[in-house]
Amino acid sequence: MMLRFAEIGFFLLPFVLYVVWRLLGTRATPGLLWATALLLAVLAAVVVWYGMQNSLPAGSRYVPAEVRGGVIVPGHAK
Questions:
Q1: What is the domain extent for residue 27?
Q2: Residues near 63 by Cβ (< 8 Å), separated by ≥ 6?
Q3: Which of 7, 46, 54, 58 has the smallest number of Cβ neighbours within 10 A?
């Protein structure tokens, strides 16, 4: 479910940034630029943290999803 929200967010991000750029134009203040930089840094940190939390342990092997007896067995680490 979280991945779906990320996909939708990445799709909408350029449109949102364009609208913000058009609305602010030359009215951007240094405080707003610093707040944007801070927000982007926090976003990058969250992406790194999320990737590390959902990675497989070192030395484990990924077994892809397969069909056994007509039932889909999800992929897992072994």
A1: 2-77
A2: 75, 76, 77, 78
A3: 58
**Confidence (pTM):** 0.50
Residues 6+ apart with CB under 8 A from 32: 24
Question: Is residue 75 a contact partner of residue 62, using CB atoms and an 8 Å limit?
Answer: yes
Residues recorded for the chain: 78
Instruction: List the structure tokens of 36.
Output: 């944007």
The residues with which 77 forms a beta bridge, in sequence order, are 62
How many domains would you assign to the chain? Answer: 1
Helix, strand, coil content of the chain in percent (nearest 5): 65, 15, 25
Q: What are 31-67's pLDDT values in tens digits?
A: 888 988 999 999 999 999 998 888 888 888 999 999 9
